[in-house]
Specification:
The chain is α+β, with helices and mostly antiparallel strands. It is built from nine helices and 19 strands.
């Protein structure tokens, strides 16, 4: 199965998460597992993650020098009326191959698989390829792999490559934190606001203060400014007034917008924040401390409800990527570095933070079509990236590879 056909096959297998429809990564993982097994020179293992979902790990049993890490999931296709191509058809027009996940990241995944096939019979040693689940939603697959990574002796690997789209060397990104918390104030009648403490006002002002502190104290020359997004806010009073207003059910603010009692000072507010730390000094406990200090000084309480993510920033100095950069330049004619301050979080950070492995993101583009209707991958870039990956395997895992 050649590269284009392989990409089409991967695109044709839906691998977004839809529990109601019973759709996940299992079918595409089973295909990848069979494909690598047929190559005959790598061990292939399933690593259970959640329910029937599993990572696929292919390796040669030796301490890996080179890792490829590919997520198998995609986002949902969305409204098919917005597509002019079948999201799972893998249709080709000119230099474009269309389909959900074509560029993020089934095109890059196909490049890895085809590179592994091209290196069959070369006697490569020290390679590991991870095909993981749930990168697009809750980041379940990579942490699960990291739990067992010592078993595969990954510490000491020279490089990990994640074929995210862009055709530029992405050597870092900001981190990812998601914080859910509740602010408690004092309810009072709206005609006597001096007797109450408005939890909604306090929550928004605390977030504004947090944003100022992040911008002033937690920036980075390469990654830019740490940012904070107020993603969700709801609030009201803990005691319903005559059946109206936002109340509390199971400890959470609830209510209908068309039935809100406006004559009460809200004494509760629940907030969801998405924070992108640029500085390695910023951790979620620092964020909580900043918010708590601000609120406590003003007579409000704060309770952390959930910390969904607490992932740090990643930066790999170009000096650690000289061999990779040379191969890219020789294959593409130039080696461009991406503006890493403009990227979202990537799961390579987990490998870097836990095992010190230099991680780089590099795959076929165009990146700007990821997650969009009529998502496509450039066929010419697929071939270029595949060739880069073959050269990487030869460089790090071939018979003449440096120790």
């Amino acid at each position: 199965m050649e590269l284009i056909e392989l990409t089409q096959k991967l695109v044709s297998i839906p691998s977004y998460l839809d529990k109601d429809a019973g759709i996940n990564e299992v079918e595409v993982a089973t295909f990848i597992e069979s494909y690598v097994q047929d190559l005959g020179y790598l061990r292939v293992e399933r690593q259970p993650v959640e329910g029937a979902r599993f990572n696929v790990i292919a390796h040669d049993g030796r301490p890996p020098r080179l890792l490829f890490c590919c997520h198998m999931d995609t986002v949902r296709p969305g409204n098919r009326d917005n597509w002019s191509h079948d999201p799972f058809g893998g249709e080709v027009e000119g230099d474009r191959l269309f389909g959900r996940g074509a560029v993020d990241m089934k095109g890059g995944l196909a490049c890895v698989l085809d590179a592994l096939a091209a290196c069959k019979g070369m006697g490569v040693q020290g390679i590991l390829a991870l095909f993981d689940v749930d990168e697009e939603k809750d980041i379940l697959g990579m942490p699960r792999f990291a739990q067992d990574a010592e078993r595969y002796q990954v510490r000491g690997a020279k490089l990990a490559v994640l074929p995210e789209p862009g055709l530029a060397i992405q050597n870092g990104h900001r981190g990812l934190m998601e914080l859910h918390f509740r602010v408690g104030g004092v309810s009072a009648h709206a005609s006597r606001p001096h007797l109450g403490k408005n939890a909604i006002h306090a929550a928004t002002h605390a977030v504004d203060q947090l944003q100022e502190v992040l911008a002033a104290s937690y920036s980075d020359p390469q990654l830019g400014t740490s940012t904070c997004n107020l993603a969700a806010l709801r609030g009201g009073t803990t005691v319903k007034q005559r059946g109206k207003g936002i109340g509390i059910a199971d400890g959470h603010a609830t209510g209908a917008d068309d039935n809100v009692s406006a004559n009460m000072i809200p004494d509760i507010a629940e907030v969801v924040l998405d924070i992108r730390p640029a500085s390695p000094a910023l951790h979620v406990k620092t964020v909580v401390s900043i918010l708590q200090s601000y609120l406590k000084q003003r007579g409000f309480t704060m309770k952390v409800l959930k910390i969904q993510h607490d992932r740090g920033a990643l930066f790999v100095p170009p000096a650690k990527l000289t061999a990779f950069e040379t191969i890219v330049r020789e294959e593409l004619g130039e080696a461009k570095y991406a503006d890493i301050s403009a990227f979202g979080y990537g799961e390579g950070q987990i490998l870097n933070a836990m095992f010190g492995i230099p991680c780089v993101y590099f795959g076929p583009g165009p990146k700007e079509y990821a997650h969009q209707p009529d998502e496509y991958v450039s066929i010419s870039e697929l071939k270029q990236v595949r060739d880069v990956f073959v050269r990487l395997i030869e460089r790090y895992c071939g018979a003449s590879a440096p120790a």
